[in-house]
Amino acid sequence: MSFHQPALLFALLAIPVLAGLYVLAQRRRRKYTLRFTEVSLLASVIGRRPAVRKHVPPALFLLGAAALVLAMAQPVLNLEVARNDAAVMLVIDTSGSMDASDVSPTRLDAAKSAAHNLIDQLPANARVGLIGFSTYPIVASSLTDNRDTVLSALDALQAGGGTATGDALALAIKELAPASGNPGDNSRPPTMIVLLTDGVTNRGSDPLQVAQQSKAAGIPIQTIGVGSRDPSVTVHGQPVGGVDEQALSQIASTTGGKYYFAEESGKLGEIYSTLGSQFAWRFVRFDATIPAVIVGAVAVLLAAMLSLWWFRVLP
Question: Using one digit for the tens of pLDDT, what is the confidence trace for 158-180?
């Protein structure tokens, strides 16, 4: 919570002062009562007085006063709400090097497991799509809010072939284009590409040039490098090399995204969860001035009415 006029909050210091004065007045009243020599006569004169409820109206008055002071300070609440119109395209490398076991059980299996975390973080109505790529990219699942369809396609991915990262990104942009709207429109639904790869592009388009297209379309690309930086890692006796971190960093920064390196499967899961929570939710500023005025006014009026009713001022 924040305030447009925070200096007015100092007026809240008057609330405990008023509460203290009320307590002091009650103690002085009790001392005066005990000085009356005929307590039984006093009771017959004033009748039975309420014990606990006599403190309710003052408590409500203090609560209402505090609420009105908060209203004068113009409170603003930062509320986290779901982005139900979001669309995210997972682009997962399924080249032969993803069969390496330096990330347990394999790089691809770790990627599949962690992708579940990302999907679980998204609101129910957010749409998710999946592109698997090796020598050529394929749309394993078009954008949909049916999670079972995406998860089934995800589990069916298998490693083998080259690495056509640029072609895969171009296909992802094409799939997201109808959902992304006009890049200059502030009300356009949020879209995002999550690229996960472990190697250097050796097929198809230049991914850095495709990143420029993604930037023009207003679609950020989050890149994740999975696997070891050790170039001596092998798959079936063949060296697979390390992650091209420089290229992945450039792709992400060009589009306004971020690059992550995940050498361990647990770290990969954390990255996916972070992306999901950041992308799936947004903060909305809610002006709470009017609700605070209403609460304060109702509390003060209720205190006055209860006081008049309980203590027989009203007929």
Answer: 999 889 999 999 999 999 987 55
Identity at 298, one-letter amino acid code: V
Both tokens assigned to 200 = 């250097």
Return d(Cα 226, Cα 267) in angstroms, integer: 10
The residue written with tokens 């190697």 in the block is 199
C-alpha pair distances (Å), 1 with each of 6, 9, 279, 283, 287: 11, 13, 22, 12, 10
Q: Where are the beta strands (DSSP E) in the chain?
A: 2-3, 75-82, 87-93, 127-133, 137-144, 191-197, 221-226, 234-235, 238-239, 259-262, 281-287
pLDDT tens figures, 16-62: 888 888 778 777 766 655 555 555 554 555 545 556 677 788 888 88
User: HSE of 197 in the Cβ direction (CA atoms, 13 Å)?
Assistant: 38
